[in-house]
Design goal:
Layout (H helix, E strand, L loop, with lengths): L9 E5 L6 H11 L3 E3 L3 E2 L14 E2 L2 H9 L3 E7 L2 E6 H9 L3 E5 L2 H10 L4 E6 L3 H11 L4 H17 L5 E4 L3 H19 L2 H14 L1
Parallel strand pairs: 1-7, 1-8, 2-7, 3-4, 8-9
Antiparallel strand pairs: 3-6, 5-6
Helix pairs in contact: 1-7, 5-6
Length: 209
């Protein structure tokens, strides 16, 4: 696996369904410069309004299988009969542009990425409570009571599986959650940008000559 560009960071954001993770990620991308969303590959068919290369890279199952066999996927998982994953070339392409990367993926993919890129930053987005998550799922009007009960049980299992993540953001009030997520990204950039120390010292040395 190719290495990251100097100071480039992979931010992994995961959450149970219905937590508002996608809205948070989209807003953070809009607000923070030099942060790019990684576009995943998938074998599922495009939905209405989705565009290839913008929402996903839509590929045939046999093509995805070939990518796996050739070790071209940085992470992947099969979900409800379709495969989803991030190509190593996608990550490297964004690093080559000098961008940090934000990935909206599930826990299985996160483990694979952390194994390949140990410096990844993992962020878990949570609802304020399971009762609040149940309320949000009900208000969407897309699930019957049985489906909601299954989603809540799945959410519990997912939260337990993601307890190893480094950061937690509770999406109670959207603006507060945006502030927390943005703060994590900015703090990690400051923590890792040791190059500024060298630049200041070198500049001072040259000025003394």
């Amino acid at each position: 696996m190719q290495s990251a560009a100097k100071n480039s960071i992979i931010f992994i954001v995961s959450a149970p369904s219905g937590t508002g993770k996608t809205s948070l990620c989209n807003e953070v991308i809009r607000r923070i410069p030099r942060l790019s969303f990684s576009i995943s590959h998938t074998t599922r068919s495009p939905r209405a309004g989705e565009k290839n290369g913008t929402d996903y890279y839509f590929v045939a199952p046999e093509v995805f299988e070939q990518y796996i066999a050739e070790n071209k996927m940085a992470e992947w998982a099969e979900i409800y009969g379709n495969c989803y994953g991030t190509a190593a070339a996608t990550i490297q392409g964004l690093f080559d542009k000098g961008c940090d990367i934000l990935l909206d993926i599930e826990e299985r993919g996160a483990r694979q990425l952390v194994e390949k890129y140990p410096a990844c930053v993992t962020i878990l987005v949570l609802p304020p409570s399971l009762d609040e998550l149940k309320k949000r799922l009900s208000e969407r009007g897309t699930d019957d009571p049985g489906s909601i009960a299954r989603r809540l049980k799945q959410a519990q299992d997912e939260i337990e599986a993601m307890a190893w993540y480094q950061y937690v953001v509770v999406n109670d009030r959207f603006d507060d959650a945006i502030t927390q997520l943005s703060s994590i990204i900015i703090a990690e950039r400051c923590r890792r940008d040791h190059g500024v120390i060298t630049r200041i010292i070198d500049n001072g040395t040259r000025n003394k000559r």
